[in-house]
Every structure is written in C-alpha cells, then in structure tokens.
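@channel sequence for tomorrow's demo:
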Amino acid sequence: MPNVYGVVGHPVKHSLSPAMFEAAFWEYDMDDEYRKFEIAPTELGAFLDGMKGKAEFALEDGTDASALYGLSVTIPHKEAIMAHVDSLDAHAQVIGAVNTIVKDDGSERKDGRVLLKGANTDWVGAKRAIEEVMDVEGKDVVVLGAGGAAAAIVYACVQMKARVTILNRTLERAEAMAERFSGEDAPVVKAGLLTDLMNCRAHLLVHTTSVGMGTDAERSLVPVEFFKRGMVVFDIVYTPLETRLVREAKRHECRIIPGYKMLLYQGERQFELWFRKKPRTEKMEEALLTHLQS
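structure tokens (generated this afternoon):
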C-alpha cells in the first residue's frame, strides 16, 4: 500500500502542489501518493491526532489519517498547526509558522510513539528565488503585507543581510513583525503603512498579499510611479502567472522574480525533508508551469 502525503488547508482545491509532487514521484518511480485534504480549522486537532494514531479520523476518501506520512500546510493552518506538533525546527520557531509536517512513525525508537515535527520551508523557497536574480546584502527590500508568507520572506531577507521595510494595512501588525526580526545580529527591520510606499526606497519589492489573485487580477497596490528601471519585483501571487503588478513592472523595465518560484523551491525542500534525497526540480517546475499555463 503506498504511503500518502498531501496538502492540508481550507480551502485547498486551488493547490498546485499535487501536480508538482506527482512529477517528482514519477521521476523516482515511487508508489507514494500526494492528495489534497480539506480540513476546517475546527477539525485540525482531531485530524492531526488521527495522523498520530491517537484517534480515528477518516478522510473524505475513506482513508484513515494514520496512513499519512507527511503534509504541506497552507492557509489558514500555518500558525494554528504549531500547537499540535511535537517539535518545531529553529526556523519555524522564529518565523512563527509551519508549512511542512514530517512524521516520525516511532519505528526507530523504543517508545514507538508517532511524533510530528513542524518545519518551515517557505523561507528557503523565498531565499532561493531571490538569490537566482540578485544579491540583497546591504540592499533595500520593501515587503508588502505582514502575514505568514511575509514573515518567511522577511526572515529570508534578514538572513541575507538586507535592509527590510514591512508595509501593511494595519501598522500594529507590521510593527510586531519588524520587532520580531530585528536583533543584535540583524539589521533593523522597519515598519509602516501601505500608504507610505512612495516614501520608501527599494532595490527589491516583494508583494505578499492576495491583491491581484484570481478574480482580483486587475488590482495592484503599487502606483506605477514607484517603479524604477532595474528594480527587482517579486509578486508571490502566481495565479494568474502575470499579475497587473508584474505587467506594469515589466513596462518600466524592472526585473521580475516569478511568483511560482517560491512554491517550487519550498516544495523541493519539503521533498528532501520527507525522503532525504533531492527531487528532479526541473520536472516539478515543468508540471507547475503546465498547470499554470492551461
């Protein structure tokens, strides 16, 4: 019987992770399966207890949750799930969000207990996507939004020694995040409101809100006057592939980091955590682009 992996969220039907991981499994001729699990916030604890084998929890297809061996975690569970795992990696602790669950089935320990470890690979995905295009050390980075994805990106940029400013609709949330990532060994992270954007300098602009996604595709938070030739723009929205923000940035000769790159590289790291080997990332990318372009 194949081991089952999957993505848990609410809603989750939009997720492209199955296509990406199925391509990776195919390349290694693996029998494992990757599915989508629609779990409401009120069911999250029971679902994870089921995964640990502490209680029965039947999934929609009749599979018991105890058959699951690893999870990708998406909205709205990235923060809430931290209370239900047995341990956290150092990055998840600092970022304050988990996007990956690694299952230890107890087979190599005397107690035999099933343990769940929470990890964060979003920051790895952001770091790799940015490093492909630029070196941000000593550069000015403006991050729009202060949610879980923003936290991972700010963390990555701080690790790369960038000067970061977080702009958000509510100042309190931006200030709390800025304080969390400022420290003795890190540059000071600044905070402000989205309306402060025109007063900011940016070598790299990162957009992390849902504006521009799906039916909201023709909206953008960034006035065209902000764009400068050579600026790097990273919109983590990838549906549609080219948002209004990206189109306008291209017209002003900005360099673009495709939004799907963060998804791709965080998934690559998830595969490594689950299977202790590297996937064929180029095949995962081909699968992603096929679905995004269809």
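heads up for whoever presents: Residues 237 and 259 are 5 Å apart (CA to CA).
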